[in-house]
Design a protein that fits this description.
Distance between the termini: 37 Å
Helix content: 25-40%
Largest sheet: 9 strands, mixed
Number of strands: 17
Order of helices and strands: EHEHEHEHEHEHEHHEHEEEEEEEEHHHEH
Strand content: 15-25%
Length: 374
């Protein structure tokens, strides 16, 4: 297999996670690392044995020996750095969300098409064994005609920085563009869009909140101006619907997992309640009796890896990326899924602002670049 030579831009928390994953992927070699924080850059380079370091991403992009660039920076930096990398002839892996706005995400996809290069977005839930199993059941007709899905994400008090985790940049529109919906909702919404075969958004309604008390000193330091809770309802072309609740902080002890239903059966994805993690389950009726079923996904996953070709190419977002660049599998349309995901999140923001339902076309027309100047 061809070795894929990678340059990573961003050596912080996310960059470290990507470095760890690439270490365990055959055929992936990180040869360059960039960050404006020289101390952090040196630390990560030494820890992971990366020989070439840069404090200016343009210098990294000037290397002619890179196959791909991995963008691990704040949301509002995704578009300018990704577009520059694509124009430099590099394939690009970008962290979620695709960007800080639909307008910026669309520019990224257009730039990839113009450059004839791949753009892959980190949508990690697409590679969970539950997602793979759900996709198989749907494609084999076990749910019948799909008509509704529910996206649920719960943290009791898990707001970045103010609740003790991660950095203050997650809480600022200037760097992150959004809060719970952009940070965690993107995983579940994209997962359901993938399972529904990426239906086109028609209308969106929703509201966001920031109500739960937080440490006032950290609030002031972080400039917390994003949502801790987002709720919404989406209508798609063809009749499908989706409802959403995504919480960074809420006075409830858990949500049931996300779900998707059809006229023959339904699926519930794992969630967290006061009783612990709920299982992946299938629901239908047999001989006029309601049936609830669970699966041995561990044994199934082991068997698929032994008997099916290229199963490892779907073990994680990074492994899929490397396999696609090696030509072993076709790249999933993660950029397009991520763009529709951000359209929905931005639609919730616009609906909240206007206090009414909005159309996809209205959201697209209202979307503005949030990209930071470099």
């Amino acid at each position: 297999m061809k070795t894929i030579r990678i340059g990573i831009i961003g050596a912080g928390l996310i960059g470290k996670d990507h470095l760890e994953k690439y270490e365990n992927i055959e055929g992936a070699e990180v040869v360059a690392l960039c960050d404006t924080n020289e101390t952090q850059l040196k630390k990560m380079a030494e820890q992971f044995g990366v020989a070439n370091t840069y404090t200016d991403y343009r210098a990294l992009l000037a290397r002619e020996d890179l196959d791909a660039v991995d963008v691990c920076v704040h949301n509002n930096l995704h578009a300018p750095i990704t577009i520059a990398a694509l124009e430099a002839g590099k394939h690009v892996y970008c962290e979620k969300p695709i960007a800080g706005s639909y307008a910026d995400g669309k520019r990224m996809i257009d730039a990839a098409k113009q450059a004839g290069r791949y753009l892959h977005v980190q949508l990690g839930f697409l590679y969970l064994i539950e997602t793979i199993a759900a996709k198989m059941l749907i494609e084999e007709g076990k749910l019948g005609k799909l008509y509704h899905a529910r996206s649920t994400g719960h943290r009791r008090r898990g707001r970045p920085f103010v609740d003790g985790y991660a950095t203050k940049e997650f809480n600022r529109k200037a760097t992150a563009a959004g809060g719970a919906l952009f940070d965690m909702g993107v995983y579940r919404i994209s997962q359901l869009l993938y399972l529904m075969d990426l239906p086109m958004v028609k209308t969106i309604t929703g509201k966001t909140y920031q109500e739960v008390a937080m440490d006032e000193t950290r609030r002031a330091i972080s400039g917390f101006d994003v949502e801790e809770l987002g709720v919404g309802f989406v209508r798609f072309e063809g009749g499908l619907t989706l409802d959403i609740i995504e919480a960074w902080a809420i006075h409830l002890n858990g949500f049931e997992g996300s779900s998707i239903v059809g006229n023959i059966g339904g699926l519930r994805l794992p969630g967290h309640t006061s009783q612990g993690k709920t299982p992946f389950s299938y629901h239908t009726q047999l001989s006029d009796m309601d049936m609830d079923a669970t699966f041995d996904l561990g044994n199934a996953n082991y068997r698929w890896h032994q008997l099916r070709e290229h199963t490892d190419a779907y073990d994680s977002s990074q492994e899929h990326w490397i396999a696609a660049l090696q030509g072993r599998v076709e790249l999933l349309p993660t950029a397009e899924i991520a763009l529709q995901t951000i359209l929905i999140s931005e639609g919730i923001y616009l609906s909240d602002q206007l206090e009414r339902e909005v159309t996809a076309l209205e959201v697209i027309a209202a979307s503005k670049s949030t990209a930071m100047n470099l």
